[in-house]
Design brief:
This protein is mainly alpha-helical. Helices cover about 75% and strands about 0% of the residues. It is built from 20 helices and no strands. The longest helix is centred in the middle third of the chain and has 25 residues, at about 140-165. It is globular, with a radius of gyration of 24 Å. Keywords: TPR repeat. This is Tetratricopeptide repeat protein. InterPro entries: TPR-like_helical_dom_sf (IPR011990), TPR_rpt (IPR019734).
Length: about 325
């Protein structure tokens, strides 16, 4: 009886171990070093949930995103860290410079590399930042540099806009559109993305009206037919939808981005067989930076009785696009 009592007493004195942020962080780093990036992301997300204010955790997951080519997601995190730490976590500047270099945004890569070197005289990444600047060095005339910087500024806006649209942050996208329209009035292509964001933010009739006006100006516009097919399908106006989807079924564009737009529109409006064929003919390397490529390709595959193909696409998409990992497998929503 005495031994049982002691055993019970020892059991009552056991303190349960509750993992903290550092535990999850260590697990994430171990997975990252083994190049198991999807597992690393899961552990690091747990670390951030345990300690949302620790900038080290967010910087580390941004590094994982960089490794898998999710540069937009990485940059978003790094900017948040700088904002939340009032620019104290200066390693972010080098990490941003590296990501912008990968994206081809040379002006922003140079700017962040120089900021890092200015703030970190003897920083860990000093040699890397100097090497990055050497690679980007050029002897163009000053006038050419100004022209380049203006074009580069547009690309930066496009990057931010792309992130908001991918994340379905419609209100943020609309605010950015208004700013872009003031700064770049001659860049007309973005107006179609504006009506798209307008529609899904709840201003359905205004979006349709604006897109119809654009179609009247350019009757053969793929962007307009694609948007209107989506808008009418979503609002249940099937007669109008059929007219615009028919215009897309007879068109086979040259550019991969236009091909993707048609494929996504077909899949999103239930034309799965034709959509699947379009997806199969895409050059993956040119369109896999769009989460919609993986989402709607997987849906089309599933609807046509190819569940293993659908699962493979979805899992690959979640690894490359962290925004997808927070969703249920999309065919459950259809």
């Amino acid at each position: 009886m005495q031994s049982n009592h002691n055993a019970q007493g020892k059991k009552e004195n056991i303190i349960p171990y509750i993992p903290d942020g550092d535990f999850y962080f260590t697990k994430g780093v171990e997975a990252f070093e083994k190049q198991k990036y999807d597992i690393a992301i899961k552990w690091l997300r747990k670390a951030i949930e345990a300690d949302p204010d620790n900038p080290l955790y967010q910087c580390q997951i941004s590094i994982v995103y960089t490794e898998i080519g999710a540069y937009h997601a990485a940059n978003q995190l790094l900017h948040e860290v700088l904002q939340n730490t009032t620019d104290q976590y200066t390693d972010c500047y080098y990490l941003l410079a590296n990501n912008y270099a990968h994206l081809g945004l040379v002006h922003d890569a140079k700017k962040n590399a120089e900021l890092y070197l200015d703030k970190q005289k003897h920083g860990e990444f000093r040699e890397d930042a100097e090497h990055l600047l050497d690679l980007m060095h050029n002897d163009n005339e000053e006038s050419d540099e100004w022209e380049f910087e203006e074009e580069d500024e547009l690309i930066v806006y496009q990057e931010k806009l792309f992130h908001h649209l991918e994340s379905k942050e419609w209100d943020k996208a609309l605010m950015l559109f208004e700013e872009m329209m003031t700064l770049f009035p001659n860049y007309k292509v973005m107006i179609h993305d504006y009506t798209y964001a307008l529609f899904f933010s709840g201003s359905t009739e205004e979006a349709i009206s604006k897109e119809l006006d654009l179609l009247q100006e350019q009757p053969n516009s793929l962007h307009s037919h694609s948007n209107l097919a989506m808008f009418y399908y979503e609002t249940g106006r099937i007669k109008e939808y059929k007219r615009h989807i028919k215009a897309l079924l007879n068109v086979y564009p040259i550019h991969e981005q236009q091909k993707l737009r048609i494929a996504v529109t077909l899949a999103a409006t239930g034309v799965y067989e034709q959509a699947y064929g379009r997806f199969c003919n895409l050059v993956k390397q040119q369109v896999n930076n769009h989460s919609a490529y993986y989402k709607w390709y997987s849906i089309a595959a599933y609807k046509l009785g190819r569940p293993s193909k659908a699962l493979s696409l979805w899992e690959e998409g979640c690894k490359k696009h962290p925004v997808l990992a927070d969703e249920e497998s999309p065919w459950k929503e259809t």
